[in-house]
Amino acid sequence: MLRALDLAEALEAGDVTPRGVVELIVEAVAEREAELGAFAHLDLDLLRAAASRGEFSGPLHGLPVAFKDIIDTASLPTEYGSPIYKGWKPKADAAIVTMTEAAGGLMLGKAATCEFAFLNPAPTLNPFDAARTPGGSSAGSAAGVAAGMMPLAFGTQTGGSVIRPASYCGVAAIKPSFRLLPTVGVKTGAWTLDTLGLFGARVVDVAFGLAAISGRDLRVDGRDFGAPVLGVTRLPFAGAMAPEAEAALDVAIRAAERAGASVVDVTLPPEWAAAQAAHATIYSFEGAHALSWEIAHHKDKLSGILRQHFAPEVPISVEAYDEARGIAKRARRASHGVFSGIDALLTYSATGVAPDRSSTGDAACNKLFTLLGTPAVNVPGLHFAEGLPMGLQVISAFGEDHRALAAAHYVENLLMSTQ
Amino acid sequence: MLRALDLAEALEAGDVTPRGVVELIVEAVAEREAELGAFAHLDLDLLRAAASRGEFSGPLHGLPVAFKDIIDTASLPTEYGSPIYKGWKPKADAAIVTMTEAAGGLMLGKAATCEFAFLNPAPTLNPFDAARTPGGSSAGSAAGVAAGMMPLAFGTQTGGSVIRPASYCGVAAIKPSFRLLPTVGVKTGAWTLDTLGLFGARVVDVAFGLAAISGRDLRVDGRDFGAPVLGVTRLPFAGAMAPEAEAALDVAIRAAERAGASVVDVTLPPEWAAAQAAHATIYSFEGAHALSWEIAHHKDKLSGILRQHFAPEVPISVEAYDEARGIAKRARRASHGVFSGIDALLTYSATGVAPDRSSTGDAACNKLFTLLGTPAVNVPGLHFAEGLPMGLQVISAFGEDHRALAAAHYVENLLMSTQ
Fold first, then answer.
1. What CATH number did the domain enclosing A29 receive?
2. Does A179 sit within 8 Å of B95, measured CB to CB?
3. What's the order of all strands across the beta sheet hosting B344-348?
4. Distance separating alpha carbons of residues B210 and B345, to the nearest angstrom
5. Residue A312 CA neighbour count, 13 Å, CB half
6. How many CB pairs under 8 A join A and B?
7. What is the average per-residue pLDDT within B256-261?
């Protein structure tokens, strides 16, 4: 994998040029892309020209960054994973693209996405096993980082579309606090839920990238934050977990305890279980509105699974939606109790390793935290049957993104030394 | 003015056809538009063809509705009031356009807007006095309804861009609870603040339109809700008011008391004054991100006032932004106390009648309520010096849009009978 932090330091030192980094990417693309399909749009000539042109100021120093194809770009098509937008060229870049460029980043290309970031599988394969899904909906972002083709890649999470594919592909990722990153110019799925997230090789890489682009003090490299207090939960409302998920959590707990971290059991409030169920109501209601033009004018070009959720025969009523919003509000309020006394929750990133390609996997471990707006980090490092990765999820209170990253960095270091 | 509710009832009864309503609009346009400049884009042939085509199902029965030109439309250009987007044709309609059409509405045309819904005056004139501003930034929506060219018109409010122009132009308008209407496909100014609002001749008209389009039980015509409990505030944090503003509020208070409504004085919490000041910080920070592509690539095509606010030499820090968000959160929490025991607050819609065209007027009476997300209604009906309109603002608790509309309807009826 390409390590964003190391590369940025080498770029800053002049040990490598942006053009040199692009050639590393070109090599990896030549080797893996035809098989994996991680990119929706990639123009190597454009990329080489952009890398050669510049003077890059800002902490990224010319580091290339990929963007999920529901994020608008003016220089490359943006198709939202849908034939309705075949060849569509937006007028403007999304805010996150401009912010990345202002931080010295270089727009690498567009990462493959599920149709409108929902459940219809993207054409991307899992780099660890071509018969399995890389997860969704940020399929190309996760697979592209895992295959060494993207040093950093933006994705989005409305259900579990950042943390789940990161777990399946063995890469780090953060879904920051709600609206820490602006979604202006990102195709809306559900305005209460849509959250931009960032993928990289390791926790230090995503922390570095998020710090550089958001202008916030979020880096966790080169500093010792001490052992965190970790609250363990097995997400009782999320259904059954596969043995690999349980094993991964057990490994992490034992390693943390051995290393002297304080590991405590946490009882989750009943408001959280209710909110887990309310997520679907909010997504279905808002999605039906967000995609109302596509449904009204291009229904025949939508997948069956999308039509079924967002254009059902009996739509979600405003009463049901308002009730779900009330449940979400109460669950957010109940979060204060959960996070008092701990630095972060430690739990599963996904219900198991990547399943086959008939689905994009199960978001049961993620959607509550999307609705709560709390920062969540996928910690990579563990591999199970046939080398398949299985991540762990570290979650802190709203606005405590640095705390989540520091705890995740701690756990990641422990896992790296166990394998 | 064209009365939306009456027209919809006539359309339903078959007493008039959509094409007939279009001809009423065409007449008013012929009479007033060349002088006023309320439209950014209007294609009468397209409009006539659309009106003739249809079978309109849904409660609007073919009623034409105009949209502020920061709301995307696929069939007419969308220029956001900026030369950067000259002739721009979005791929898709905004969600609110599709929702309006699903309710039986007909897309009338695009209403003139200030550049990116900010402070640089739109070319529109005030229908009551060509030397004065119609207010901003929903200038065309307010003037178009006032001049009888639009039965209903959507605008947006990020500071005071719905309630203030409604007051200056003597029309009714509602800024509903935050996110009651989806802003998908609406150009972002500030994601914490941007709120779609609806203009019409009277309170019953905007209530009818909002009910039809949102699918919520919000109509206030033909029902007697009894006399509301009104809490009066003179917005001590909003600075000095012109005599017309004070006189309007006094007239309303006296009329309500005479009619048997309970009118009580309300003391506002200190959190609200702090939030009034925090509004600018949030708008400036989010606006700088929302417009980052335009600033990075087309700075020379932005107005001076926009550059000054969103591309300042010293940008708003993330710390200042986070502090402002915290202040807003505490102010929202403090709202519960204000609204307990009253149906609605009664206060000024604007600091006075419409000023001259060197500005779009002062949003001091509005921006707090945008930040709080509470529903606010402009009640028209009063006219002062030289016939200039001066509105009153009625505000209820978050989610209590029907209560705000019912109280506003009550106040409007009182004002109509005083003049």
1. 3.90.1300.10
2. no
3. B39-41, B106-111, B64-68, B152-157, B195-200, B172-175, B376-384, B388-395, B344-348, B229-232, B262-265
4. 21
5. 12
6. 75
7. 95
Asked if residue A250 is part of any domain, the answer here is no
| Per-residue pLDDT, A419 | 59
- Do B188 and A192 count as a contact with CB atoms less than 8 A apart? no
Average pLDDT over all residues of chain A: 97
Closest Cα in chain A, distance from residue B89 (Å): 9
Would you call B20 an interface residue with chain A, using a CB distance cutoff of 8 Å? Answer: no
Q: Is B86 on the interface with A (CB under 8 A)?
A: no
Question: Angle at the Cα of B324 (from B372 to B275), degrees rounded to 5?
Answer: 40
- Answer yes or no: are the C-beta atoms of B63 and B205 closer than 8 Å: no
**Rounded-to-integer distance, Cα A241 and Cα A222, Å:** 35
Q: How far is A222 from chain B (nearest CA, A)?
A: 23
Q: What is the mean pLDDT of residues B320-331?
A: 98
Residue B327 in domain: no
Closest CB from A286, A293, A399 relative to B92: A293
Helix axes A318-339, A270-290, angle to 10 degrees: 140
Tell me what the mean pLDDT of segment A74-87 comes to. Answer: 98
Contact A363, A163 (CB under 8 A): no
Tens of pLDDT, residues A240-273? 999 999 999 999 999 999 999 999 999 999 999 9
Q: Kindly identify which residue of chain B lies nearest to residue A215, measuring between CA atoms.
A: B318
Q: Rounded CA gap, B321 and B318, in Å?
A: 5
Which residues of chain B make contact with A101, given a CB cutoff of 8 A?
296
Instruction: Give yes or no for B289 touching A (CB within 8 A).
Output: yes
B375 part of a folded domain: no
Are B293 and A322 in contact (CB < 8 Å)? no
Burial environment of residue A64 by CB neighbours within 10 A (0 to 12, 13 to 18, 19 or more): buried
Residue of B nearest to A96 (CA): B289
Indicate whether A418 belongs to any domain: no
Q: What is the pLDDT of residues A308-338, one digit of tens each?
A: 999 999 999 999 999 999 999 999 999 999 9
Alpha helices by DSSP H, A216-291: 243-258, 270-290
Per-residue pLDDT at B48 exceeds 90: yes
Please report the pLDDT score of residue B57 as a whole number. 87
Q: What is the mean pLDDT of residues A130-136?
A: 98
Residue A81 has pLDDT above 80, yes or no: yes
Q: What is the DSSP string of B279-315?
A: HHHHHHHHHHHHTHHHHHHHGGGS-HHHHHHHS-SSP
Domains contained in chain B, number:
1
**How confident is the model at residue B419, as a pLDDT?**
59
Judge: B102–A296 Cβ closer than 8 Å, yes or no: yes
pLDDT at A417: 81
B228 within 8 A of B410, measured Cβ to Cβ: yes
Q: Which of B390, B401, B397 is nearest to B163 (CA)?
A: B390
Other CB atoms within a 10 A radius of the CB of residue A323 amount to 13
Is A24 an 8 Å CB contact of chain B? no
Q: Give A13→chain B minimum CA distance, Å.
A: 27
Q: Per the structure block, which two tokens stand in for B230? A: 């009104």
| Pairing of the two strands A344-348 and A229-232 | parallel
Prior bond of A75 cis (ω within 30°): no
Range of the domain at A153: 4-214
Return d(Cα A292, Cα B185) in angstroms, integer: 11
